Amino acid sequence: MRAEALAGHGNNIATSLGRIIIHCDLDAFFASVETLHHGLDPKIPLIIGSDPKGGRARGIVSTCNYAARKYGIHSAMPISEAWRRCPGHPIGIGLYMKSTRGLISRASRKVMEILQAKADKFEQTSVDEAFLDVTTVTEGDWDKALALAKSLQNEIMNNVSLGSSFGIGPTRIIAKMSSEENKPMGIHRVMPDEIEHFFNGRKCREVPGIGPKSATRLAEWGIETVDDAYELGEIGLTRFSSERFAKWIIHIYEGTSSSEVSVLRSRKSISKEHTFPTDITDSEEILSRLKLLIGRVCKRVREMEIAGRLCEVKIRYKGFETHTYGKSLMVAMDDEKIFRRVACELFATNIDLERPVRLIGFKIGGLEAPPNRQSTLDDVGEESE
User: Fold this and answer.
1) CA 112: distance to chain centroid?
2) Range of 65's domain?
3) 113: number of Cβ within 10 Å
4) Residue among 248, 237, 232, 256 at smallest CA distance from 335
5) 62, 87, 368, 375: which could join 91 in a potential S-S bond, CB 3.0 to 4.6 Å?
6) Contacts of 149 (CB under 8 A, 6+ apart)
7) Does a structural domain hold residue 51?
8) What angle do CA 18, 365, 373 make, to 5 degrees?
């Protein structure tokens, strides 16, 4: 089936969705790299982070594998809480270790080279995620796109020994959501005439950009699923939410949200940094300072009535060695909770816990002005500015 004009189901679903977008998400990437490097059993809970010191240590979890996630452990969780949920030797089966520096960037680079070689346009959004526009290389054929995703998945496994999941869709958001459908090592495709079926009964919380708080507020108004929102229509939704949110969720359901895959991002940004009086190794204290910086930057973004789609964390160690880690968001936002979550994950998965830190910084880039600005969280229930 080609990506051309396709009839909807009577709900004005877009009928000219011309792009084929693939989203690749590496499965439990950080933990998988460590498992592979050390020859570990993937069935044993693996927690990467600070030395837990028998559950008494201060510090955080950098990342963990799928086995550890079954215990409710996640990135940025206090290491003491992780130990409480899944203790290590000699009490329990949890395996705690520190990250092996350098492995992540090398593995990521190998995967991204494989993906980029097969795409018309390529956009790496983080160390373990990327979008590919494959419209031309597949000749607009959705079956060829499915075959390409399978081929890429096999090539990554054969050459880098890492699992990956792929989503295929006509927009970025649909491709992103599809990649979450069959994890790990899954592939899910949503063609233009399947969009309505894909969203019917799907919880609003599953849409990237709608967090738990907003999903709860929507549910209180009787809007639990994406099709609930669509049935109300743009005018009906504005009784409960901002005009921006109403237009955005309608575009998502109709498959008319962004399908652009861009190599370059805007360099415009807003940032804040903090230099500690003395070099410190307390990761919880550093994280606390990072959260303050996030609040200040987000406040400035809101004051300027703009939004951003790039989140960056800067870490400078003793000796002035500086590293910057970034992640692109699905849409431009000004929501502090979203940026805090993403930035804390970037910090947790990249901080070298053994090295004293001199400076911590935070930046929002890829700035956009209305009407492209998208607030999908706190703007629910508020009037459009």
Assistant:
1) 16
2) 45-93
3) 11
4) 248
5) 87
6) 22, 166, 168, 187, 189
7) yes
8) 55
Same domain? 360 vs 277: yes
| Residue-wise DSSP of 47-89 | EEES--GGGT---BEEEE-HHHHTTT--TT-BHHHHHHHS-BT
Q: For residue range 332-375, what is the model confidence (pLDDT) as tens digits?
A: 888 999 999 999 999 999 999 889 999 999 999 988 765 444 44
Given 123, 129, 254, 368, the catalytic residue: 129
Rounded-to-10 torsion of CA 254, 256, 262, 264: -110
The string of pLDDT tens digits covering residues 219-259 is 988 999 999 999 988 888 888 888 888 899 999 999 988 88
Q: Tell me if 382 is assigned to some domain.
A: no
CB atoms within 10 A of CB 359: 17
Task: Please report how many Cα atoms fall inside a 13 Å half-sphere around the Cα of residue 39, on the Cβ side.
Answer: 0
Residue 239 is which amino acid?
A: R
* Residues 247 and 275 grouped into a single domain: no
In sequence order, what DSSP letters do the residues of 173-216 get, joined into one string? HHHHHHHTTT-SS-EEE--GGGHHHHHTT-BGGGSTT--HHHHH
Same domain assignment for residues 276 and 361: yes
Residues 6+ apart with CB under 8 A from 279: 317, 318, 356, 357, 358
User: Do both 287 and 343 map to the same domain?
Assistant: yes
* Number of domains, the chain: 3
* Residue 383 exposed, middle or buried by CB count within 10 Å (0-12, 13-18, 19+): exposed
Residues 207 and 230 in one domain: yes
Is residue 284 flagged as an active site residue?
Answer: no
Is residue 364 classed as helix, strand or coil in its secondary structure?
A: strand
Three-state DSSP at 382 gives: coil
User: What 3-state DSSP class applies to 96?
Assistant: strand
Please state the pTM of the whole predicted model: 0.70
Pairing of the two strands 164-169 and 121-126: unpaired
Q: Which of 226, 254, 282 is the last residue of a domain?
A: 254
* Residue position matching structure tokens 């799907």: 202
Q: Which residues, 6+ apart, have CB-to-CB distance to 87 below 8 Å?
A: 55, 94
336, 270 contact by CB (below 8 A): no
